[in-house]
Amino acid sequence: MSANGVDRKELLVILGSGESGVGAALLGRQKGYDVFVSDAGKLKANYKQELIDNGIEFEEGHHSEDVILRADEVVKSPGIPDKNEMVKKIRAKGIPVISEIELAYRFKGDSKIIAITGSNGKSTTTSLIYHICRKAGLDCALVGNIGYSFAKQVAEDPKPLYVAEISSFQLDDIKEFRPDVALLLNITEDHLDRYDYKFENYISSKFKIIQNQQPGDYFIYCQDDEVITGYLKNINLQTNPLPFSMRQELNKGAWIKGDQMMLKVQEERVSMSIYDFTLKGKHNQYNTMAAGIAAATLGIRKEKIREAVADFHSLEHRMEHVATVRGIEFINDSKATNVNSTWYALESMSRPTILILGGVDKGNDYTLIEELVREKVKAIVCLGIDNSKIHAAFGHIVPVTDTDNALDCVKQSFRLAEKGDVVLLSPACSSFDLFKNYEDRGRQFKEAVKEL
């Protein structure tokens, strides 16, 4: 109650006005909160219009401390780190900070959630699970880190099933969030700048995906990932484990034996040929096993899983064939923003490769791909502002040249390549030095290829 005896609406402050922030604002408003959106930067025109249309108060270019520190709860955008001054003040005052997926979870009702996390392969696996579910006739939505806000979906078009791609940043601020089916694909060193450069902090952040799970839930994970299996030895698992592996047969889960993928969740064992998978490469066999298990936990029939796995199309910016120009194939893997992603891309190359690397380095350890570079790469073309680390890592192995825009980069790569070669954009770095994001980098790369 307020001083005059009238019930006061709870003040929900949204910090950051991107896809997740605006989604949280719309859901908060719908559920009766007093909502205020604050962004230290500039709001995108479409998001600003959405807030205006819905009568939601906002500010841009600064944070009004007097309003923000009156909040009952704050929804923090995943892009804002904890070391941000405003976040420090909010926490110091004891105001609860949650993520947008936590808010969405609060109001999802009886709907089920399949949540997918991991350092690599999240988007592909999430999209494949969604594709299988749609193929099986399930009424579901694709949400989270992949592009559409979970909170906005809950507010505008609730579904009985949500297939959600979840990043570690989104998991950092959960309290009750609990997926019915959680997938942890792999853990490799990534985003360490957000975790005090401590790998163990990043690992525990990823494992938050199962922190609230119960005995009726499922946990799908990679048995071949030593980081995951090492961590599992030290925790008491409250959920049903369903591992997947290429190295061993399992009692339950999925594994590859010869050219067959075996899938066993309940009593029935299903097998399908890996040659029928649309997605090629070892990493995609892992992604397909994980997606197959997730589908099986929902009781989707094996025929539907087979059908969906065979006609799924890969994502834009993820090992995407762009064009073949004079016998030289160009592949856009701009979504590879860490070294491990680039390792997977190189591992699937069967022809001599011109590799495009570079951007904002997040503490990369290039020794991970040194062997593959020796084996498969003819030359490296850098696409970034500071390429000194790449020169130091590979200059003694292959020729390394510098470019600072997509057009020059593609022209230089084309000059270095011969008929039968592949030009692979798989940068191992984020894109913010020269581009808006990895999508912008990928699109500019594709445009430049078209101009050859």
UniProtKB/TrEMBL annotation:
It catalyses: UDP-N-acetyl-alpha-D-muramoyl-L-alanine + D-glutamate + ATP = UDP-N-acetyl-alpha-D-muramoyl-L-alanyl-D-glutamate + ADP + phosphate + H(+). Keywords: ATP-binding, Cell cycle, Cell division, Cell shape, Cell wall biogenesis/degradation, Cytoplasm, Ligase, Nucleotide-binding, Peptidoglycan synthesis. Residues 116-294 form the Mur ligase central domain. GO terms for molecular function: ATP binding; UDP-N-acetylmuramoylalanine-D-glutamate ligase activity. It is an enzyme of class 6 (ligase). Its main location: cytoplasm. GO terms for biological process: cell division; cell wall organization; peptidoglycan biosynthetic process; regulation of cell shape. Its EC number is 6.3.2.9. ATP binds at residues 118-124. Pathway: Cell wall biogenesis; peptidoglycan biosynthesis. One of its GO terms (cellular component) is cytoplasm. InterPro entries: Mur-like_cat_sf, Mur_ligase_C, Mur_ligase_C_dom_sf, Mur_ligase_cen, MurD. It is found in: Cytoplasm. Residues 317-429 form the Mur ligase C-terminal domain. Cell wall formation. Catalyzes the addition of glutamate to the nucleotide precursor UDP-N-acetylmuramoyl-L-alanine (UMA). Belongs to the MurCDEF family. This is UDP-N-acetylmuramoylalanine--D-glutamate ligase. The gene is murD.
